[in-house]
């Protein structure tokens, strides 16, 4: 097993104790090791990019934080999405200790060197393939999974004891030897001297440089190990009580080899950096930064889901106009969307999803949309939305345009599951509901109950269902899309259905700019009261609190004067309404639901499901945009406004807070966080708990053409009977699953979903599988959302190689007046994928590449540079992303080598010549 034990927080503490015990200056855990490596690798990428672009770059002061790194990269608005990427990768890393606690390969225990490296190198291939397809979320998931074993290697093996001062480069390559590993029969340890384990590894093992690692087992009497082998050590490990007694792990300062903890932890940081650098080499600087959640401009995507059936031509015109105006007004500013996503839907088709970072490509795609077909009234709006929800970045805003009811209503609970898991806001732009559209039968295609479905989905996501006539649509769309920026924060969101008279309050802190109120509903009135007690009624257009008020369809916007403090809004209406107060601020919060793990160790794991209602639960809350802010209160507030539950909050360091609730509400709720200096934010998303527990786990790699099994299990203490099961995936892959399971209260029922990716599915495609379980009567639903990557096994495991053809250096003492030049040949192996790119990693001379005449498999590289820049590093990458770095310097040219080199060149020249002939 595992890990940086106690240190890795959350985990592995005796029941009752809560971990995540990050004590500054003490042991380092997976969380800190991962964060340090990511911050470092990201800075390296930003510096390289700045150098390439000739802009300034300054390293921030240590210790680095996500905020400081995002600022150093010139992208302060990415601070939140960067933080999110780090947290997600870290959670996936921590999860390995829970899901694979006793699988030695994931921890380099029990001399599982080959198996451990296979997990890492396969994972690297998946990440590189995902990156090529822009599927960064899947790449992050895999990254967390493989950073765990690479970090464990330095704690659990004797690499550090062997005296190495650099990480083992062979752990991230599959075409080399890992090193000299101990045979199964070879004794590696002796008993420790009581508690003193400083000297328990056998001298011959150290002297011969043989790699070994500790055995681990938790079951008393049943845990064994081969004769003479080392153990992991520590109170939980039962193998360390068998001779040779004691252990060798360096998980914490007080571990068996705790005296080497810091050395091991620092080497784990360096090894993680090395792995990230390899991924960066294959991806290129910008995609690598995107993977880390860092992008120029806004970190938000502009995401449209558009009905393209016949009646939509006016609406599509409106989208065109809005897209043009957003692109024209935001390109080049810090609010420029970092990604554009379009999902068209029609009937019987929907998609494909189009994703681009180029605003002009997006404009062209939107311009080429035409409105045709659709047949009957209903269209596949939820299918389109499902696709958008699984591809848009976390925390996105999606705008869905339609004038028709959903024909695929059966996807409602899947869509809600994805809204909750992705914390994405969905705004519906509806032209053609009966409520407001009085223009004639053509426009009145959506009945009241059909519109209700869209309203419910909007409300679950904290978005708006804007119902307007076709002529009003451009104005409404423009209002709502223009305000979507990455610094948008939610101060309050609430809904009342049926309508009721209610007073809401929201806090405007000093960092908030442009506070805005959005109301949807019909026939309402309100009174706003500012922190100083001034008030203004909806009927009073001359008041001093509202700067502008705009009404279109069922949608009203109020732009407020900024007054810092607590505002009140009294709403009066007998009709349903929604209220949302937003503003712009660099400060916000991120959160994930956690639960105590069921595995052999006590720990916490992030949920991919609804939390259990009525019992205790927890959230990990992280503040973004500030390195000093603290959380003072976390509450779950019932969406009905009737109740709220406050948490006990424990700071975990690094801006993370654990919020422990003694009960999770059984009814819909949102999350509200308060902090110092009047900080108060609310989640956009509304959440639900469930009495059903659903778990699923499987390898996350799908091979095209090979059926892939996802075992899952449903459990409940309260519910029994036939549970309906539904499995949906966003790629339309064939899938087989049971339609129901019989559940006895208190027992679990298990089954399997089988997925098949077609043979021609490109490597790096990701697929999101949602498995839903619905209680009899449909009152309670839970789901698990899983993401897998498709990968072709392939045969190319070696990076391209460089061969020096010539190096001529006429460097004199005055470097600026002399030059040196280099000629190199780059090839990938026989039958391998071929050279994809050759770029400069270091050196500021001129690089030229060309293909050898008559042989596309040989890339010729020439480089010449001022002698002031004496070194060059060529980054060479093949088509599957294997990376090599070739280093040359003008300084160490040894004259004696020249004759041999010239001979090689002559011979090579002959070979190339004969290849041409
Ligand atoms: C542990 O043993 C080593 C030699 O085997 C010795 O140098 C060291 O002082 C001992 N440490 C303690 C705490 O006794
Ligand atoms: C930071 O990254 C660079 C480049 O990948 C690496 O050389 C260096 O060792 C890393 N620093 C640490 C502390 O790991
Ligand atoms: C879109 O813009 C064009 C030109 O600016 C205008 O003629 C047209 O009426 C607009 N369409 C809509 C639906 O706003
Ligand atoms: C779960 O069960 C409890 C007790 O039976 C009930 O009060 C609650 O409403 C149920 N929760 C859900 C989400 O159905
Ligand atoms: C279902 O799976 C769970 C966990 O995987 C296991 O504990 C349980 O015994 C299984 N139940 C059945 C009926 O197979
Ligand atoms: C180039 O490589 C491909 C694939 O390895 C091979 O099929 C082809 O024959 C090679 N071409 C030459 C000119 O060697
Ligand atoms: C190239 O790099 C050298 C040092 O590596 C530096 O002295 C020189 O100013 C750089 N030249 C340019 C044009 O950036
Ligand atoms: Ca239709
Ligand atoms: Ca290769």
UniProtKB/TrEMBL annotation:
Domain Hemicentin/VWA7 galactose-binding: 489-585
Location of the Hemicentin-1-like von Willebrand factor A domain: 301-470
Domain VWA7 Ig-like: 692-791
GO CC entries: extracellular region
Claim: Transport is one of the keywords in the record: no
Signal peptide annotation: 1-19
Pfam family, one: VWA7_N
Cellular localisation: Secreted
Limits of the VWA7 N-terminal domain: 65-289
Keywords, sorted A to Z: Glycoprotein, Secreted, Signal
Protein name as annotated: von Willebrand factor A domain-containing protein 7-like
Species this chain originates from: Eleginops maclovinus
């Amino acid at each position: 097993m595992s890990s940086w034990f106690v240190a890795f927080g959350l985990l592995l503490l005796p029941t009752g104790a809560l971990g995540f015990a990050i004590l500054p200056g003490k042991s380092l855990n997976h969380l800190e090791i991962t964060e340090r490596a990511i911050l470092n690798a990201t800075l390296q990428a930003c510096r390289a990019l700045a150098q390439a672009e000739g802009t300034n770059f300054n390293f921030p002061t240590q210790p680095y934080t996500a905020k400081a790194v995002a600022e150093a990269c010139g992208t302060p608005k990415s601070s939140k999405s960067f933080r999110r990427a780090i947290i997600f990768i870290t959670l996936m890393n921590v999860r390995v200790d829970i899901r694979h606690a006793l699988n030695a390969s994931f921890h380099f225990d029990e001399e599982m060197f080959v198996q451990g490296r296979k997990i890492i190198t396969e994972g690297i291939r998946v990440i590189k393939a995902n990156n090529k397809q822009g599927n960064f979320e899947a790449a992050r998931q895999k990254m967390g999974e493989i950073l765990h074993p690479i970090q464990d290697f330095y704690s659990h093996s004797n690499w550090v004891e062997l005296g190495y001062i650099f990480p083992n480069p062979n752990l991230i390559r599959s075409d080399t030897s890992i090193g000299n590993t101990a045979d199964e029969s070879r004794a590696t340890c002796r008993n420790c001297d009581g508690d003193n384990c400083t000297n328990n590894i056998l001298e011959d093992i150290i002297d011969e440089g043989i790699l070994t690692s500790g055995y681990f087992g938790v079951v008393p009497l049943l845990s064994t190990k081969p004769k003479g082998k080392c153990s992991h050590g520590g109170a939980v490990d039962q193998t360390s009580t068998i001779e040779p007694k004691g252990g060798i792990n360096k998980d914490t300062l007080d571990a068996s080899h705790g005296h080497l903890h810091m050395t091991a932890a620092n080497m784990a940081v360096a090894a993680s950096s090395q792995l990230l650098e390899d991924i960066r080499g294959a991806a290129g600087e910008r995609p690598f930064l995107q993977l880390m959640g860092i992008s120029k401009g806004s970190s938000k995507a502009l995401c449209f889901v558009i009905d393209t059936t016949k009646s939509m031509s006016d609406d599509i015109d409106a989208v065109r106009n809005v897209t043009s105006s957003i692109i024209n007004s935001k390109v080049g500013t810090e609010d420029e969307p970092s990604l554009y996503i379009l999902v068209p839907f029609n009937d019987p088709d929907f998609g494909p999803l189009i994703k681009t970072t180029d605003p002009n490509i997006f404009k062209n795609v939107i311009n080429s949309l035409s409105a045709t077909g659709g047949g009957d009234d209903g269209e596949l709006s939820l299918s389109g939305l499902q696709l958008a929800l699984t591809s848009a970045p976390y925390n996105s805003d999606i705008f869905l345009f339609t004038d028709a009811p959903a024909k695929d209503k059966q996807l409602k609970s899947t869509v809600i599951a994805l809204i909750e898991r992705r914390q994405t806001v969905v705004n519906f732009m509806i032209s053609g509901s009966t409520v407001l559209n009085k223009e004639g039968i053509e426009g009145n295609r959506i009945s009241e109950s059909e519109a209700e479905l869209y309203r419910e989905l909007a409300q679950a996501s904290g978005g708006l269902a804007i119902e307007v006539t076709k002529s009003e649509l451009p104005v409404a769309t423009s209002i709502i899309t223009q305000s979507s920026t990455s610094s948008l924060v939610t101060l309050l969101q609430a809904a009342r259905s049926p309508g009721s008279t209610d007073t809401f309050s929201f806090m405007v802190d000093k960092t908030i700019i442009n506070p805005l109120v959005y109301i949807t509903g019909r026939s309402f009135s309100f009174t706003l009261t500012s922190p100083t007690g001034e008030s203004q009624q909806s009927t009073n257009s001359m008041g001093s609190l509202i700067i502008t008020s705009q009404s279109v369809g069922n949608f009203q916007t109020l732009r407020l004067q900024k007054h810092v403090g607590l505002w009140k809004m009294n709403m009066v209406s007998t009709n349903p309404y929604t209220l949302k107060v937003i503003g712009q601020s660099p400060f916000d919060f991120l959160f994930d639901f956690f639960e105590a793990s069921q595995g052999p160790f006590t720990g916490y794991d992030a949920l991919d499901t609804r939390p259990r209602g009525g019992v205790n639960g927890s959230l990990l809350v992280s503040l973004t945009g500030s390195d000093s802010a603290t959380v003072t209160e976390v509450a779950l507030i019932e969406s009905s406004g009737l109740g709220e539950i406050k948490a006990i909050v424990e700071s975990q360091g690094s801006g993370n807070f654990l919020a422990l609730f003694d009960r999770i509400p059984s009814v819909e709720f949102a999350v509200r966080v308060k902090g110092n200096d009047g900080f108060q934010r609310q989640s956009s998303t509304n959440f639900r708990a469930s009495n059903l527990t659903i778990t699923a786990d499987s390898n996350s790699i799908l091979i095209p053409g090979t059926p892939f099994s996802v075992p899952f299990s449903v459990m409940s203490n309260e519910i029994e009977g036939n549970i309906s099961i539904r499995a949906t995936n966003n790629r339309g892959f064939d899938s087989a699953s049971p339609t129901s399971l019989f559940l006895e209260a208190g027992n679990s029922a298990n089954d399997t979903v089988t997925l098949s990716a077609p043979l021609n599915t490109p490597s790096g495609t990701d697929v999101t599988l949602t498995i839903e379980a619905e209680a009899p009567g449909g009152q309670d639903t839970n789901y698990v959302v899983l993401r897998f990557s498709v990968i072709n096994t392939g045969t190319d495991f070696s990076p391209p190689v460089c061969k020096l053809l010539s190096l001529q250096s006429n460097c004199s003492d005055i470097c600026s007046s002399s030059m040196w030049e280099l000629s190199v040949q780059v090839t990938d192996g026989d039958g391998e994928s071929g050279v994809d790119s050759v770029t400069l990693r270091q050196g500021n001379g001129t690089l030229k590449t060309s293909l050898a005449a008559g042989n596309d498999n040989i890339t010729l590289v020439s480089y010449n540079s001022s002698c002031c820049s004496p070194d060059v590093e060529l980054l060479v990458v093949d088509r599957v992303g294997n990376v090599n770095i070739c280093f040359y310097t003008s300084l160490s040219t040894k004259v004696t080598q020249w004759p041999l080199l010239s001979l090689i060149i002559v011979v090579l020249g002959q070979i190339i010549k004969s290849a041409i002939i």
